[in-house]
Amino acid sequence: MIPTLEDVVRITVLRVDGHAVTGVTYASYQEMVERLLGLEVTQERSSLVSRTRLQASLGVADARHQTGEGQAEYMARLTADARAALAEEEGAAADRDLRRFLILVIGKLILGTRGDPVNCRCLPLLEDLTQVGSYAWGAALLAHLFDSLGTSSRETGVAGFFPLLQVWAYCHLPSLGRGVRRRAGAVPLLQRWRFCRDERSLRRQVTLIHDALDTVPLGHIQWTPYVREDDATQPWVERGRPYFGRDIWLHCFNIVVLLHHWLVARTLGLHQAVVEFPTRQRSWERPGRSFRGIQQVTDWTVRLDDWERRGKEVVSEATSDEDYFRAYARRYGAQVYKGPGDRLTLRGRSPRSRVPSIPPSSSEMIFRRWWTSCWIGPSRWWEVPPLPERIGRSVLEGQLASAAARAEEALAQLREREQELRTALARTTTLEAEMAELRLRPEVAEVARWRQEAEAAVC
Predict the structure, then answer these.
(1) What are the two backbone dihedrals, phi and then psi, of residue 313, each rounded to the nearest 5 degrees?
(2) 223: which DSSP letter?
(3) Could you tell me the CA-to-CA distances from 175 to 39, 172, 213, 298, 425 in Å, in that order?
(4) What is the dihedral of CA 261, 266, 267, 270, to 10 degrees?
(5) What's a BP term from Gene Ontology annotated to this protein (predicted)?
(6) Among residues 7, 68, 147, 313, which one has the fewest Cβ atoms lying within 10 Å of its Cβ?
(7) Residue 58 CB: number of other CB atoms within 10 A?
(8) Range of lowest pLDDT (73-77, 139-143, 337-341)
(9) CA distance 266 to 156
(10) Rounded to 5 degrees, what angle do the CA atoms 57, 61, 64 make?
């Protein structure tokens, strides 16, 4: 399951319709920052501005998170302080201060980075303040979040708007118990939840969350948590509805990613069809994946035709989820293994990776829990009868295929090692022969001594 544009709209109220957040990135933003923000950039070839200097220019230099303060309270207090400072300005000075506030909110919250400085790549879009509200900042937030999450298991930091992921998890995975309702019926949903404070260590909390995610039954997942929402009181939802339930390219300047909504068709009330991932090849290539400061002037306005067409609607001709689960078991059934902390993890395995698999019984138990909970809903999954024979056969087929692949890989490694040993043996034999030949050759000094002795004997 992944966050979608509908989640962004309902949780944050940010627009997902309108103009794509894209344009040109520059090698240096020094002139633009000085002209539009009235601030100095210490490094000529940089897109970063100091956060403390931005806050000081707005009169909110001391605005920091207070103990127990949520993101919504912090933003409300920051906005109130900034409004008080902006009320004292007029004309061009007021526009300059407004741009400072917008770049602080966009560059630090909506499109936040891991470091303390604020990124100014969106500053060109703030030059005309009358058009700022026409951009799809919500879609840019989702693209930036997808890009910052990454796929490496060594990633320890995440950039982006964290409250979106938190509230999204509260709505779709309520059994985790990480959120507490504080204002029933409040909109946007960001104001409806409060984070459940936990006094245990961070390592312990992460371990518990991992264990809960690995064992949560599918019947406990809320695929369509917004069916009872009153959309009449949320005009921003109706405005963004044409972009819901579609595979569409999301834009955030240098970040251009595809929202694969068809992978979570169940969030649309559809049955999940068999997933066949396409190749990574595409008809166009972008200059790079992410922006790292010093870059050439680059125009990122690509695939805007897809955004203007609102992508492609997600449809499913599947009449049940049975084929999807059978294919999933055949592909990944034997690739359940114990990850860090002795927790059970289910992942796809790349050809080069070598991960130990747990016994088939554990693999079948986990798959049975997912399968049965999908069919019976939020009732007691442990009272479900055994797996259908055809599903067990699919699991065994996946296990046999995985075992055969591992055996072939081990055999290839043995043959490669055998060839290396044969080559080393041949090289050793050659060296021994050369050394023996050298030992049979007389030294030059000995030859000279023998010659002298022969001459002396003759005389």
Answers:
(1) -70, 140
(2) S
(3) 48, 9, 10, 45, 62
(4) 90
(5) meristem maintenance
(6) 68
(7) 20
(8) 337-341
(9) 30
(10) 145
Please, are residues 174 and 222 in contact by the beta-carbon 8 Å criterion?
Answer: yes
**Residue 412 CA from chain centroid, whole number:** 34
DSSP state of 240: H
Q: How far is CA 120 from the centre of its chain?
A: 22
**Tokens for 209?**
């969350």
User: With pLDDT > 90 as the criterion, what percentage of the chain qualifies?
Assistant: 19
* AA identity, residue 334: A
**Domain definitions of the chain by residue range:** 5-308, 320-459
Per DSSP, the three-state class of 26 is: coil
- SS3 label, residue 159: coil
Q: Is residue 75 classed exposed, middle or buried when 0-12, 13-18 and 19+ CB atoms within 10 A define those classes?
A: middle
> Can you give the pLDDT at residue 129?
93
How do residues 404-443 score in pLDDT, each as one tens digit? 777 887 888 888 888 888 888 888 888 888 777 776 666 6
Name the nearest CA neighbour of 313 among 250, 378, 366, 242: 242
Rounded to whole angstroms, how far apart are CA atoms 368 and 34?
A: 61
Structure tokens at 225: 């948590």
What would the pLDDT profile of 323-373 be if each residue is shown by its tens digit?
Answer: 887 777 776 654 443 333 333 333 333 333 333 333 333 444 444 444 444
